Amino acid sequence: MKQATVRKVVDLKGHQCPFTFVLTKAHLEEMDSGILEVIVDYPPSAENIPRSVIAQDLGKIISVEHIEGNTYKIIIQKSNGIK
């Protein structure tokens, strides 16, 4: 299986919900398609961002990975046509 290339990385450490999702959504809406990697250090964001992305049909959650401590990496695939 071909591994997806990260197109854009957004470091949202230091931010809390709902701001983490608001910024994630803004970055996804700027993209035509591709991969967005979001780094957060507020544990509820690791649950809320994927749930909101799915609920608003903004893309597909590829993975949510616990890095260390409170830090998580969320990988989102935005498909063509998703605005």
- Measured by DSSP, the beta-strand proportion falls in 25-35%
Q: Strand order of the main beta sheet, please?
A: 1-2-4-3
Q: Mind telling me the C-alpha Rg?
A: 12 Å
Tally of helical segments:
2
Q: Alpha-carbon distance between the termini?
A: 27 Å
Question: What spatial form do the alpha-carbon principal axes imply?
Answer: globular
The computed structural class is alpha+beta
Number of strands: 4
The parts where pLDDT drops under 50 for at least 5 residues are: none
Listing every helix as H and every strand as E from the N terminus to the C terminus, the arrangement reads EHEHEE
CATH topology: Translation Initiation Factor IF3
Number of structural units classed as domains? 1
The major pleated sheet works out as: 4 strands, mixed
Mean pLDDT: 91
Second CATH tier, the architecture:
2-Layer Sandwich
The CATH homologous superfamily: TusA-like domain
Portion of residues within helices? 25-40%
CATH first level: Alpha Beta
Report on this model:
With 83 residues, the chain is an alpha+beta fold. The protein is built from 2 helices and 4 strands; from the N terminus they run βαβαββ. Strands 1-2-4-3 form a 4-stranded mixed beta sheet, covered by helices on one side. A hairpin with a 2-residue loop joins strand 3 and strand 4 (71-78). The model has no long low-confidence stretch (mean pLDDT 91).
